[in-house]
Amino acid sequence: MRDRLSFYKNEYKLLYGINNIFKNSLGPKGKYYIIKYFGRYLIMYETKTLLYFLFNKSTYYTHILHEILIHAEEFQDGVKYILVVITEILKQINNRQIFYNSKIKIKLLTILKLILKFVSKASFLRSRNLDIKNLYNQKKFIRMLSRSDIIDFSRDFLSIVSTLIYDYYAKSIDTNHLKSINIINLRIDKSTKFYILNGMIYKNVIKSYRKFLNNTKIAYIKQTNSTFRSSTLRYKEKHVFSKLLMEEKIMYIDLMKIFQNNSINCLLIYKTISDTLLKFFEKHEIIILQPSNVHILTSILSLIKAKSLQTFSENFEILVGVARCIFSRRIVDNNYTVIKQYEYLSNKKCMLVNFSNKGFYMMFKIMFFKLLSILTIARYKTRLIIAGGLLEIGIIRYFLNINYKNKNNDNLLLILLDSFAVIPFELCGDTILSRNKFIRKNNCKDCWLNYSHYNMVKNLLEIFFIKWHSLKTIFLILSRFLHVN
């Protein structure tokens, strides 16, 4: 009798929590909604929509929400993931009338068991022969990621996170140096773009915050003995000093004649230059472009196809190439973050991300780190799928539409998953890897967002443990649901 009373009390609490989903929103257009059950839970608008669907379509709704909230209390994550999969399965149940067909009911339970097996055991399957484009009707949501597919994945992820992710690490710009930093976009031709990160166009050369230059001839001066001195000459003997200055001015005049005769309107340098030379270039409206490191400098020279120019001078050699246009943008906001590349990658993609507030910036760093953790696995495995529950939906649809006659369910699962590199087996179980073992297996580098190896392993384990336990919750809910009905 007491158990029955306690059950009704919990049922009342649960229904009270359901009603408060819609009453306690943070305004009519608020992003978050509150459930009052085991406390206060904030849910996103999409999650609220899924709950609303279940509330109208399923008589088993209170039991589903009860299991989901228990899961949320224990793991604090994975609620939307569970709702996405369960909603899709309930749609399949309604469409196929599973209540009246025991064979389909058994089939669905078998599929759920196979999905659990997919997470726990099918971990080192590698193959590129199987075509699974028709696995899910809306296949644009399924991200098949290999080493060559990371760029394509980055473009798709751009619309979601509003930034480019391509194996970068995030770093804040020191606000003290904001006034002297520019982001220079160098377009070589119609198909090639080149971003010079932390490069700068000298302030006294450009008069406005933005500079756009078409059909640019870029010159790089090599082997200059005294041309590019950043410091002023200081000699005790006045005649030696004046003689050197005269030689330097003659050299500058010769240099400017070469620039005018060859229609050169941009100078590429790596080190700082003297003030006198800077005035010469400013007078003749020549842009001075300074990349942030040597690798970018060499990459620019190769992209513009720089060739040596005959100058009849022993002091310097000039390399000249052509670019379609140069665009410079000044940084004036404190809430900008630079996404820098790793040294071992090509210097072709860089991006500047603007954050409206610090809270969003911190949230981005956490999301960014988790994504990099997944990309680490993608680098060492053949393929990886990031689908947020849609992969499981694809598997369910796939298995519901195929014929089981004379086929082994386990073999079908292996064939389906043979095109993926799934989560490493060690990260799926309940055992926690030691720090050294994880580093040895994955060859991780301690340079991402200043996170230690311990934090990286911890975050990876959290991601996959939540996925594993979320699938267990899904299986628990639907197995009870099917047995009850």
From TrEMBL:
MF annotations from Gene Ontology: ATP binding; ATP-dependent protein folding chaperone
InterPro entries (UniProt xref): Chaperone_TCP-1 (IPR017998), Cpn60/GroEL/TCP-1 (IPR002423), GroEL-like_apical_dom_sf (IPR027409), GROEL-like_equatorial_sf (IPR027413), TCP-1-like_intermed_sf (IPR027410)
Transmembrane stretches, start-end: 359-377, 384-400, 412-433
Supply the alphabetized keyword list: ATP-binding, Chaperone, Membrane, Nucleomorph, Nucleotide-binding, Transmembrane, Transmembrane helix
SUPFAM superfamilies attached here? Answer: GroEL apical domain-like, GroEL equatorial domain-like
Q: Which Gene3D superfamilies match?
A: GroEL, GroEL-like equatorial domain, TCP-1-like chaperonin intermediate domain
> Which Pfam families would you find in this protein's record?
Cpn60_TCP1 (PF00118)
As given in the record, the signal peptide range reads none
PANTHER family, per the entry: CHAPERONIN (PTHR11353)
Family affiliation:
Belongs to the TCP-1 chaperonin family.
Name the record gives this protein: T-complex protein gamma SU
This chain's source organism reads: Bigelowiella natans (Pedinomonas minutissima)
Gene encoding this chain?
tcpG
